Amino acid sequence: MSEDGGRRRARGGGGAARRAERTAVRIEVARFIERNIPNFEVLNEEALQIIEANAETVLEEIGVAFVDNPAALKLWKDAGADVQGERVRLPKGLARKLCATAPSSYVQHARNPARNVEIGGRTLVLAPVYGPPFVRDAAGGRRYATIADFQKFVKLTYMSKWLHHSGGTVCEPTDVAVNKRHLDMLLAHMTLSDKPFMGSVTEPRRAQDSVDMCKILFGAEFVAENTVMTSLININSPLTFDSTMMGALEVFAANNQASIISPFIVGGAMAPVSVAGTLTQVTAEILAGVAYSQLVRPGAPVIAGAFVTSIDMNSGAPTFGTPEAAHITYGMGQIVRRLGLPYRSAGSFCGSKLPDAQAAYETSNSLNVGLLSGVNFMLHAAGWLEGGLVASFEKFVMDADQLGTLHHIARGVDVTVGAQAMDALREVGPGGHFLGCAHTQANFKEAFWRTDLFDYKPFETWAEEGERDTVALAGARVEKLLRDYQAPPMEPATREALMAYVDNKKASEPDAFG
Amino acid sequence: MSEDGGRRRARGGGGAARRAERTAVRIEVARFIERNIPNFEVLNEEALQIIEANAETVLEEIGVAFVDNPAALKLWKDAGADVQGERVRLPKGLARKLCATAPSSYVQHARNPARNVEIGGRTLVLAPVYGPPFVRDAAGGRRYATIADFQKFVKLTYMSKWLHHSGGTVCEPTDVAVNKRHLDMLLAHMTLSDKPFMGSVTEPRRAQDSVDMCKILFGAEFVAENTVMTSLININSPLTFDSTMMGALEVFAANNQASIISPFIVGGAMAPVSVAGTLTQVTAEILAGVAYSQLVRPGAPVIAGAFVTSIDMNSGAPTFGTPEAAHITYGMGQIVRRLGLPYRSAGSFCGSKLPDAQAAYETSNSLNVGLLSGVNFMLHAAGWLEGGLVASFEKFVMDADQLGTLHHIARGVDVTVGAQAMDALREVGPGGHFLGCAHTQANFKEAFWRTDLFDYKPFETWAEEGERDTVALAGARVEKLLRDYQAPPMEPATREALMAYVDNKKASEPDAFG
C-alpha cells in the first residue's frame, strides 16, 4: 500500500471531510448511458435461428467441461444434464430454461449513491481496461505495472467524466505479492474512488476477501441485499469452465454479487475461423455459464459477455477493431437480448504498441460497434494498448475523451420545436449566417459534444506551441488530472477498518510471487 | 504538365502495351461495395415526417436564392415556382415531384470497364480526398500542393485496392495557373489511372473542357449515351445556389453527366446549431438542387450530398467525427433514400494537424457512420487532414487500408453450412484448439480481413525494427506503392489527342493566378 491511497490521506469524515468538500476540485461525472437510438442488427431471423439451434446442438452433443469441480458436476446432474467424467451434456432447452431466472438488469451500488449504475436494458456502463501486466507512457516507455500505477489509473478513472465504473485490475500491480495484490487493488478502488468496482476472481478465497471488504465498506446487511460488485469470470474457450473461475463465480453468486460470464476468444485459435462458428460457440458457452450461475443461486445477477478478436495468421497475434469482431459483437448483442440478459462486449481494443493512429482506428471501430451492438457493460473502455498487454496512460485519457461521443450519439436526435430551429432558418434566410442568430446564442453551449483533449487551434497557434500530437496533449492531460485529484471523502472509521482487514490478511500468510 | 503523366510514359497501345502488361505489377482492385447489411436508422417515422414537412415549409416560405442566373429563374418560373428577384419559393410538393425523374442509381463508366462503378441502391463507391491546397508528409512537412503531388495521389489511388474511384481535385496543384490546372488534373486522371474520375466545376467552361476531354478518351458517341464523370456541385449554404456551380451543373446535366449536389455546412455557422434544424435545411437544399438539375435535363444522374460538420465554439474551427455529424449523416441517409436518390456523405474527416491518434479516431468515426448510413458515394474517403486544408500522404494509405474493413463489414455474416463450422466444433471439442483443425486449414486464408499496413509483430521484433509508429509504416508504404506503380496501358493516339487538347487550351489564354 503506497502512502497515497492510505494513511497520509486519512482526511475525510467529520469536519475534515467537510473542509475537503469545500476546497474540492469539482468533478463532473456523467450518468451511465441510456440509449435513445436503435441497436444495429447484422443477423436476420433465419441466421439467428441457425446459430441458436447450433448452440443447443453443441451443448447436447459435444457438451462442456467443468474441470476439478465435483460440486458443479453434481448440480448439473441434479438439474438433468448428462454428466460423464467432467463432460456435461445439456439436453436441448435446459440451459435456456435455467437462464430464465437471471435478471435482465440490475443495479450495482457505489458507496456514493449518485454513482450507482444500472446494467441491462438500454443502458451502457463504461469501465477502464482490465488486466495488463505492463504500463506505458511517453516519458517512461513500457514497463511492468506497479501498485502506484494502479492507483494512478483509479484516480484517472475517478476524474473522468465519461467513465461510470472504476473497473477491477486496471493493471497488474506486479510489485505486490500475487496472493496479496487483490487486497491493495480493492483498497484503492474503495478509498481513492467512489465509483462502483469489480471484485477479485483469481482464487475463490480472494473473491471472499472482496465480499468481506465490501461488508466493511457498505455494511454487511446492505451487501446481503444489494449488488455492490460486478466481477469478470472468463470461460476457458472452447467450452471449458475451470475450477478457479467457477469457484469465484460460486462465491459471488452465493452472495448475490454480479459476474460477467465471458468467453475470451481469439478467433481461429479458441473458436472456429468463421463468424457463424464463433457465434455458435460463444452462445453455447454463455448459455452453459449463465445456467450454471443460476444453479448456484437462482436470480443471481450476471452479464453475458463476448470478448472476441481475430488472429493475424502471419504472426499469430490477436487483431482488433476488425470487421469480424464487428460482426460477432453485433450478432452476440442480438442473441444476448433474445436471452433477456445484460450484455458485455467491445472496448478500447487495439493491437498497436503505441497510442498512435493504428491504435485509434482500431479503438474507434470497437467503441462504435459497442455502442450500436447494445452493449450494457463495456469493460476495457479506456486505456487498452498492445493487445491488452499494456495499460497506456496517454491512451487512457484519449479513449476516455472519445467515450463522450458515445454518450451524445446515444441521445438520439431531438426533434422538439426548439430543436427544429425554424425560427433560426426564418431569421437567417438564404446567404446569411447563423453564428449570431437568437437560436444559436440560446443553444450553442449545449448543442455540440466538446472534446477535452483534441486540438482545434489555428495552425499558427498550434505550430507556435510546439506542434503537439495527441500523445503530447494526452500526457499533459494525465498530469493535470492527477494534479487536480482529491480523494472523495470517507468516514475515517471505515478507512481504518478496511486497512486493518488488509493488514491482517497480509500478515496471515507469506508473500507468493509468480 | 510534368513529364511523369506525359510524354516520357508514352508507352501503351499495340506491342508496347502488351509488353507493359506482361511486366506489370499486378494490382488488386476490389469491386465497389454492395451492402449485405441493414442501414442504421437514427430517426423514427415521426421525426422523418417533421423534418420533411419543415423542409417543404422552408422551400415555400423562405425559398432559395439562385444568384446571377436569369435562365435558372426562368426555368423555375415556368415550372410553377414563385420567383421574386433572385428568390425562388417552391410550393409544397413541387421540388419532390421534380426530383422523381432523377435515377435512383447509375453506372459511371471508366476507361477500363472492369472499373465501372454503380452508384445508388445498396452500393458504396469510395473516392479520395478533394480540394486541399496543402499536402503533408513526414519528410517534407506541410507545404503548398503541386501538380507533382497531385500525380502522386492519382497513382496512389490507382494502386489502392479499396478505392474504386480516382476522385477529382485530390489536392490543388497550386504551381499551375488557376485557369489551366483543371486540364492537368483531368489529364492525370485519364492517363495515370483507369478508374472513374470527376470533372472540373470551377467554371462552366472548365466543365465543358471536362466533357470535351472525355469525348476524346471515350469517344463522343459513348459520352453522349453514358455517364463518364461524377462531379461535385456545392450549394452555398444556407439556401443559395451561385452561378459558377450552377453553370457547371448545367453543363454536366445537359451532357447527361452526373453531379453530386451537396451543401457544404459547418453546423452553427451555415446551418442552425441543432441536428434537426440542419437536417431540415440540408433536405430543403437537396430538394431544390436536385429539382433544378431535373429542370435542366429530366433524368440527369445526380447524387444528393450532405457534407456536414460542427463548429468548435472556442476557435471557430470545424470539428469532425462528432456525434452531431453522425446524427446528421445517419438521418440524411434515411431522407435521401425516401427520395429515391443516391447518397453522398462521410469521409476520412478529421481536424487534427497530423496523422495521429486524433486524426484516426475522428476518421474512423466518420467512415463507420458512412458505411451504416447507406452512403453510396464517399468522397474524401482517404487522405483528408486538418479540416480538409491538407492532403496527407501517410494518412492516405492509412485510410485506404481501413477502407478494407468497410468492404468486409458490408458482406454481412455468412451462415452457410461451411461457415457454421459445426465440423470444427465437433473435431476440437472442449479444451482443444482450432489452429490445426480441418475447417481452419481450409478457410483461414480468406476468413479474416487483413491489413496491409498495421503492425502485429511480436514486441521484440517491433522494437528491433525501430519502434515504428503508424506514420513511419505508412511512409514506407507510400514509397513502395509509388515505386511499384506502372501506368495502365493506353492507346498512344488517345494520349496524343488528350495532350494536344491540353496544349491548345493552355496556349489559348494567358495564365491566371490567385
If you had to describe this structure to a student in words, what would you say it looks like?
Two copies of one chain form a homodimer. Chain A is of the alpha/beta class. Chain A has a domain at 97-411: Trimethylamine methyltransferase-like (TIM Barrel, Alpha-Beta Barrel), CATH 3.20.20.480. Chain A is built from 19 helices and 18 strands. Chain A has helices at 14-23, 45-62, 70-79, 94-99, 147-159, 181-192, 204-218, 220-225, 243-254, 275-296, 323-339, 357-372, 393-410, 417-420, 422-428, 438-447, 459-464, 470-484, 492-507, and strands at residues 33-34, 64-66, 82-84, 87-89, 105-108, 117-120, 123-126, 134-137, 141-144, 230-235, 240-241, 258-266, 302-311, 318-319, 343-345, 377-378, 384-385, 390-392. In chain A, strands 10, 12, 13, 14 and 15 form a five-stranded mixed beta sheet that branches. Chain A has a four-stranded mixed beta sheet with strand order 3-4-2-11. In chain A, strands 9-8-18-17 form a four-stranded mixed beta sheet. In chain A, helix 10 (275-296) runs parallel beside helix 11. The first copy, chain A, is globular, with a radius of gyration of 24 Å. The two termini of chain A are 19 Å apart. Residues 1-13 of chain A have low confidence and may be disordered. Chains A and B meet through helix 2, helix 10, helix 11, helix 12 and helix 13 of A and helix 2, helix 10, helix 11, helix 12 and helix 13 of B.
